[in-house]
Amino acid sequence: LSHLAHRGSLAYGNEVFRCFDDPDEAVRTEAITAYCAIGREKAIRAVRRFLEAESPAIRAAAMVGMIKYGGLDGVLAAAECLKGMLENEAPLLRTHGARVLGAIRVRNFYHPILRLLGDPELAVRLAAIDSAGAMKSPELVLPLIYKLGDKDCAPAAISALSAYGEGIE
Q: Would the pTM of this model clear 0.90, i.e. be above it?
């Protein structure tokens, strides 16, 4: 499915679509992403239903696919759901929300990551740190440096800062 997503060919669109019903959640999430990658804006109608999925991973895959590949309509359809996930009281949902931001890699979407870097739940903070490294937003460098002083977050912060590449110092 990942290979088909990178190829971007509609030739296998029906096969990818059939994977939406696979019993393995990992296959379903990859199918959603692949379908969005190959279907672009046309995939929104088929994928929109997953924004309400019970599984946070499935919801996140739909958001990533729609935001990355669905054009303005995809962004608008997924934005409220993403915002709700980032502000949810459930740590698992905030964690997946942080991962979505890392996956879409929009540098200007750093404000929610700043807030999640101070989350009371370690898993959420670690996801925010990983996403900061993926986003490479200059506004996140100093907060990542401060995370070096937290023994639970320091290894992730080192990795995230390293992802910025040369010149980060």
A: no
Dist. CA 105–CA 158, nearest whole Å: 19
pLDDT, one tens digit per residue, over 116-127 is: 999 999 999 999
Q: Check the CA dihedral 145-138-132-82 and report its sign.
A: positive
pLDDT tens for residues 147-169?
Answer: 999 999 999 999 999 999 988 87
CA distances from 47 to 30, 90, 160 (A): 12, 24, 31
Cα(120)–Cα(96) distance, rounded to whole angstroms?
15
In SS3 terms, the chain reads as: CHHHHHHCCHHHHHHHHHHHHCCCHHHHHHHHHHHHHHHHHHHHHHHHHHHHCCCHHHHHHHHHHHHHHCHHHHHHHHHHHHHHHHCCCCHHHHHHHHHHHHHHCCHHHCHHHHHHCCCCCHHHHHHHHHHHHHHCCHHHHHHHHHHCCCCCCHHHHHHHHHHCCCCCC
Nearest to 107 by CA among 74, 130, 71, 136: 136
Q: How big is the chain, counted in residues?
A: 169
